[in-house]
Amino acid sequence: MNSTDIQLDIEKVETSRIDQVDFSNLQFGKQYADHMMYCDYIDGEWQTPKIVPYGPMEFEPSAKVFHYGQAVFEGMKAFKDDDGQIWLFRPEQNFERINKSSKRMAIPEFPKEHFFASLQALLKLDQDWVKKGQGNSLYIRPFVIATENGVSASESDRYRFMIIGCPAQAYYNKPIKVIFAQDYSRAADGGVGFAKAAGNYGAQFYPTKLAKEKGLDQIIWTDASSHEYLEEAGTMNIFFRIGDKLLTAPTNDRILDGVTRKSIIQLAKDNDVEVIVDKVSVKYIVEAARKGELKEIFGAGTAATVVRVEGFEYDGEYFDLPAIDKPYGTFFKSSLQDIQYNRVEDPHGWTVKA
Ligand code: COI
């Protein structure tokens, strides 16, 4: 990242907590790096970003985020290469998307210089929290919340933008089982499905809990009006392999424009794998599974990276997807990680030095 002239207020921790963390046994999103950033929006302006020790913050119970869920977030990762250099993967995409999400949620856009100067400072202070080695990363969570006090149902006039980071390994440590949604929906036309609005995720927890009670891990959401087309899963976008072709749903009002999704589409093109970005019909996928033509399903997201789906339930029937030789999922995951850990050339200029 280019250094910027943005002034930050920095208060460093007196003693790092890093020695209390067992990096060989991380639970996703449970341990946090020493520092965090926050920046308030007051009187129509973003103030000076502050970097402080990670810890609790105080808000009044009437803060609007608690009542109306006016909040958006991002997920991004930093990786350390074998020489100890830290790299961010396509951070511009996350910056652009958080502002796109903010706009839809009537939250003021965050200045680019503030975003990148804060990331750079955080990664310098917390560089030891980014571990070397396959699978290790620092998961970075920028987010914005509405902080004006008052329960009137209107957009806030105060906000807090924050960045926290947690050392991460796999989000899923084994292949997952999914269910194709028949009754519940994730997002509707004209709604906020394309945004990383906090409520998009909270609203999925109940149907996902029901799926988990049946021994499944995730839901693949179908379109809200007909439930005939597969869209995305709760924590990631989703790809299907029929024969040698890869199929994924196009992004729209309802589907998140995932950074991992678009990177895989590009990698597929680079490797002469035919990718069809088109509506994915449930009937077609179920039929393909019956005929043995459905070779793979895998999810793709920043937290999840790439995860194999080992089977799915639809309409009370379970379909197994046995592991195959040379799966695309494994190939795309390792191609992506080779770039992220700076092990190979980065032909698209996706990685950015921290
Ligand atoms: C991410 O992959 O970064 C996400 O935001 C998904 C989240 C539900 C963990």
UniProtKB/TrEMBL annotation:
Keywords: Amino-acid biosynthesis, Aminotransferase, Branched-chain amino acid biosynthesis, Pyridoxal phosphate, Transferase. PANTHER family: BRANCHED-CHAIN-AMINO-ACID AMINOTRANSFERASE, SUBGROUP IIII AMINOTRANSFERASE. It is an enzyme of class 2 (transferase). NCBIfam families: ilvE_II, PRK13357.1. Acts on leucine, isoleucine and valine. One of its GO terms (molecular function) is L-isoleucine-2-oxoglutarate transaminase activity. This is Branched-chain-amino-acid aminotransferase. It catalyses: L-isoleucine + 2-oxoglutarate = (S)-3-methyl-2-oxopentanoate + L-glutamate; L-leucine + 2-oxoglutarate = 4-methyl-2-oxopentanoate + L-glutamate; L-valine + 2-oxoglutarate = 3-methyl-2-oxobutanoate + L-glutamate. Its EC number is 2.6.1.42. GO terms for biological process: isoleucine biosynthetic process; L-leucine biosynthetic process; L-valine biosynthetic process. It holds the Pfam family Aminotran_4.
